[in-house]
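User: quick one, sequence for these tokens?
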């Protein structure tokens, strides 16, 4: 069964533009345009109204797109059944993640690819809202974000699953007098120079902290972990982040950096979690990948508690 034209059709509807759809599909504009024209001619209807600003679905097109989605998902179910009978795992998995879990994903991805070499994995780092949008628009199959009380994923129409309970900690040079303390309080943190990793939840946490306790001297925010490490080691800065984000970083060894809990009121439960589209039939690839990821995170959770 050739589903290529249906895939082109769905991508054009999603992108609202033939050129954008061609870019996403990595094919020529003419290939997409010819596929749409061919289907419209074959079915005797207009699926899209074309204009200089892009394309919009006709009333008939809205019905057709819904059916095209359903057909593609049924075809994917058929493929999954065939692969299950043959004992093979093939396909593509698109994962979007906030930066901090990348160190956790490294081992999972490497081992998963060794086990299932025919799977094509695509992993991108993005901000949380971009990840939510991508999963909603079916540009990503799985999204890894931080779930907390102010992020109401259920309102987005997405399904979410908690994977790992996490909390914020402070990292400081082991040579600092502050490193001798078991915890860091609000006034102690406000007396420090702080460097931050560019992460949505870290930003929210610091904004909330400053609204409650007053301004903090934030030297810089960056995605460069080496720069954060040097600021802590050479200039006595404090960095804050989620506890798991320090665990697999070679630079943040215990003999270099002390990791301290905060002496602060509980913000409520916070989790590293995965989001997926509710109505989408999850592929064998995504199910297998989630099994591997959960197993790895269970081991990590146990080590964090020990």
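Assistant:
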């Amino acid at each position: 069964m050739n589903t290529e034209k249906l895939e082109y059709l769905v991508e054009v509807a999603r992108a609202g533009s033939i050129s954008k759809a061609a870019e996403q599909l990595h094919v020529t504009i003419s290939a997409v345009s010819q596929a749409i024209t061919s289907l419209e001619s074959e079915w005797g209807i207009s699926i899209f109204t074309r204009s200089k600003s892009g394309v919009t679905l006709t009333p008939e097109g809205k019905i057709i797109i819904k059916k095209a989605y359903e057909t593609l998902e049924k075809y994917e179910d058929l493929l999954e059944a065939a692969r299950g009978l043959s004992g093979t795992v093939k396909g593509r998995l698109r994962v979007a993640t906030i930066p901090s879990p990348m160190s956790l994903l490294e081992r999972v991805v490497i081992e998963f690819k060794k086990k299932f070499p025919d799977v094509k994995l695509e992993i991108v780092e993005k901000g949380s809202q971009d990840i939510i949008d991508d999963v909603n628009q079916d540009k990503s199959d799985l999204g890894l974000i931080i779930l907390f009380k102010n992020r109401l994923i259920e309102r987005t129409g997405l399904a979410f699953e908690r994977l790992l309970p996490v909390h914020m900690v402070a990292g400081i040079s082991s040579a600092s007098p502050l490193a001798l303390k078991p915890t860091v309080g609000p006034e102690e943190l406000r007396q420090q120079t702080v460097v931050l990793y560019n992460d949505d939840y870290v930003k929210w946490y610091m904004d909330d902290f400053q609204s409650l306790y007053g301004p903090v001297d934030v030297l810089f925010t960056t995605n460069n972990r080496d720069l954060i490490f040097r600021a802590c080691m050479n200039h006595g800065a404090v960095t804050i982040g989620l506890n798991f984000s320090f665990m697999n970083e070679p630079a943040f060894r215990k003999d270099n950096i002390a990791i301290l809990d905060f002496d602060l009121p509980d913000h409520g439960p916070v989790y590293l979690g995965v989001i997926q589209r509710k109505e989408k039939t999850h592929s064998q690839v995504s199910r297998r990948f989630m099994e591997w990821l959960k197993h790895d995170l269970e081991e990590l959770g146990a080590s964090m508690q020990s």
